[in-house]
């Protein structure tokens, strides 16, 4: 059926119905490719071979030493502006060429658990009630944390068909960067983003995550910025529900805390921030931990001046904030 073909091949429904009509009229021969469309390529075969060599050398060989991703704008600086058409003539493709990460050292053990299961709002404190409705007049703050290492997330880039691009990264335990973020929102007010970073150097016996003091310092900083009481919404991380954290929360009369269900990353708007930042750090080449911290700060800074983008992250959770009035 055309709808199923469109879904599997990720094409428009109109294209699927056109292919179906061609198949009914002329059979499988009518579906054969006629080659790339558009005008004839004006580049000499030698120039095409030269451009293909540039692509195989990788972005690092041409000055982009950090993120190893070929984009149309970067390829345009090498030859001509008709880049998407040219790279497709060379047998390159973007959607089917995710970069493969090749470790430059021993591989670190451990994998992140897969996210699965259905999430229900009834599992947390946000399932309604007088307490939730009474707190809706204050700033609602969603908090979440993320970790960054020298092993970057994989991203898509231009590459020759059948030849997966390889990005050399560090496989050693060279430290970790922990980031805690907080999105503050209130009807009629501009959404705000606050964040706190901490670098964890490699070594036995050293902490590799943020503690209670780090999280409460983030909340205190948001309170000083907003100058209003805060309703904090976060997950059930052991640091969030520890005895020390409960004591710190009890000392702040302006702070009200709600817990999300046991595992519900889709209900936290800050998850969209981390996905946005990690997408921009895809295929990152080997960099020092200090440089990684600077890059993460550089990606987070523009989001603080884009409240519309933050509102999009909030809308992506599906949660609605009703005015108690």
TrEMBL record:
InterPro entries per the UniProt record, alphabetical: Homeodomain-like_sf, RNaseH_sf, Tc1-like_DDE_dom, Transpos_IS630-like
Gene3D superfamilies documented for this protein: Ribonuclease H-like superfamily/Ribonuclease H
Domain of life: Bacteria
Biased composition (Basic residues): 109-118
Residue ranges annotated for the Tc1-like transposase DDE domain, each copy included: 140-283
Pfam family, one: DDE_3
Region of interest called Disordered, as start-end residue ranges on this chain: 103-127
Protein name, entry field: IS630 family transposase
Gene source species: Streptomyces lavendulocolor
């Amino acid at each position: 059926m055309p709808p199923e073909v469109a879904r599997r091949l990720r094409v428009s429904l109109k294209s699927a119905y056109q292919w179906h009509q061609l198949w009914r009229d002329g059979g499988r021969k009518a579906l054969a490719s006629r080659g790339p469309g558009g005008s004839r390529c004006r580049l000499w075969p030698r120039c095409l071979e030269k451009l293909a060599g540039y692509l195989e050398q990788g972005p690092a060989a041409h000055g982009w030493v950090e993120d190893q991703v070929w984009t149309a704008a970067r390829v345009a600086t090498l030859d001509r502006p008709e880049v998407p058409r040219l790279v497709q003539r060379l047998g390159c493709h973007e959607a089917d060429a995710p970069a493969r990460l090749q470790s430059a050292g021993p591989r670190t053990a451990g994998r992140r658990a897969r996210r699965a299961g259905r999430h229900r709002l009834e599992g947390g404190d946000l399932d309604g009630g007088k307490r939730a409705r009474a707190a809706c007049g204050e700033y609602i703050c969603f908090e979440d944390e993320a970790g960054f290492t020298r092993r970057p997330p994989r991203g898509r880039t231009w590459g020759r068909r059948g030849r997966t691009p390889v990005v050399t990264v560090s496989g050693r335990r060279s430290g970790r960067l922990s980031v805690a973020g907080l999105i503050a929102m209130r009807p009629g007010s501009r959404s705000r983003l606050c964040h706190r970073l901490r670098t964890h150097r490699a070594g036995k016996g050293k902490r590799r995550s943020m503690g209670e003091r780090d999280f409460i310092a983030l909340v205190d900083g948001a309170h000083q910025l907003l100058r209003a009481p805060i309703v904090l919404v976060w997950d059930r991380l052991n640091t969030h529900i520890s005895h020390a954290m409960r004591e710190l929360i009890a000392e702040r009369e302006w702070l009200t805390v709600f817990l999300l269900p046991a595992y519900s990353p889709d209900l936290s708007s800050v998850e969209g921030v981390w996905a946005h930042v990690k997408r921009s750090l895809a295929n990152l080449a080997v960099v020092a931990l200090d440089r990684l911290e600077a890059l993460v700060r550089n990606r987070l800074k523009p989001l603080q001046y884009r409240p519309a983008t933050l509102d999009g992250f909030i809308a992506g959770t599906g949660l609605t904030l009703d005015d108690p009035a």
